[in-house]
Amino acid sequence: MRPLNDAVPPGISVRQLCLTLDQRPLFSELNLDIVGGAFTALLGASGVGKSSLMRVIAGLTPPTSGQINGSDGLPLAGRIAWMGQQDLLYPWLTVEQNVCLASRLKGKKADRDLAQHLLARVGLSHCARARPATLSGGMRQRVALARTLYTRQPIVLMDEPFSALDALTRTQIQTLAAEVLVGHTVLLITHDAAEACRLSHHLLVMGAAGIDTCPPLRGLPPRAADDISVIQSQATLLKQLSRLGG
């Protein structure tokens, strides 16, 4: 499901980005290009600045200096959807109402047809009138994914959205996310090398000196966990993370 039309969505262009928090420089003169219409995973050691970088890209944290735009040269504001580790569903709203939250916040009429379509895509049509408290963790993340898609934004930022799930549920939701986010520009932060290699078109590793690219991945996501190319890419990625202290 493409976010708006059949055109390839914009990528993300980061130029000379600097960020200092509490008098501590997190990164300096960072340059980065995220490919439009593709799934890119960003890995690195805890505290290196991955989540801070994502918050700057999302416009939630102002940079100390530097520029962030779409690859089309236009600002990213109004073109980004966010999915975090916590589903943040409103317990007093139904599943369908949670999916339509963007309309509710804007004072607009909910697009129930779109919500039902998205719930069907994530396998939760039968839960539209349920409350979040009645759902499992995996089901709640499916609702959060549908809510993310409901915004119909071309760029999706994901900060470890599957890390709180058990191994089997995580694999299922990973596969679902890769399938329903086709046609979006996705930046995923993860500490899971296997997850990155299953889901991504491109891999990036963030270290103290900046961001390094990784060797190209073979095939298209979602890849099988036991695919030999996934296993080989995971081993290569772990070595690169180890060199950078990840």
UniProtKB/TrEMBL annotation:
Residues spanning the membrane: none
Keyword Transport set for record: yes
Gene Ontology terms, MF aspect: ATP binding; ATP hydrolysis activity
Coiled coil feature spans: none
Keyword Nucleotide-binding annotated: yes
PROSITE patterns given in the database record: ABC_TRANSPORTER_1, ABC_TRANSPORTER_2
PANTHER family: ALIPHATIC SULFONATES IMPORT ATP-BINDING PROTEIN SSUB (PTHR42788:SF13), TAURINE IMPORT ATP-BINDING PROTEIN-RELATED (PTHR42788)
Similarity annotation: Belongs to the ABC transporter superfamily. Drug exporter-2 (TC 3.A.1.117) family.
Protein name: ABC transporter ATP-binding protein
